[in-house]
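step: validate -> pass
step: tokenize input -> pass
step: predict -> running
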Amino acid sequence: MILTLSTVHCGHLLHLQCYMELFTGFLIREDREYSTWDDARKVLDIRKRSITDFKKAMLDNDIIERTANEDGEVVLRVNPRYHFRNELPENKRVIKTFTNRLKEMAEELKPHEVGMVYKLNYCRISIRIRIRSALIRLNVILRRLGSQRGSKSRSYVISQTQRCHGIFV
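step: predict -> pass
step: emit ->
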């Protein structure tokens, strides 16, 4: 999905990740209140027409969702498939350092340049997932072959696939 978006939209999405509540994906303002599309427009420093295009792309592709928070209010939330905050350890300093650098980068670079960073990272993760799933399938096949040939060859096959799996993960 990300590869079909414009690099400008990817840049805006990455920039908005600096304004997400930790582990929930809810977009929030500096005052910790839930963010609106107008708040996002101000953070991104773009025109109303540009936020309309961005909003349409995000909602149509289920990248940013309208969802209810714990109080039942409809708020904006970044789909967990498209942000980094669920994948990092619960070390808030790591996330804060990354977020601060990302804010600086978004101020220094143009949105399409930030978007290229996002797309490159997304491709890297996508490739790792594909390699991992291929290795899992290979492991299943080799386990079946190993079980047909006897226990010694089976353990050898499993150890070799685990070794390969460790290289790519």
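step: describe -> DSSP finds six helices and two strands in the chain.
step: cleanup -> pass
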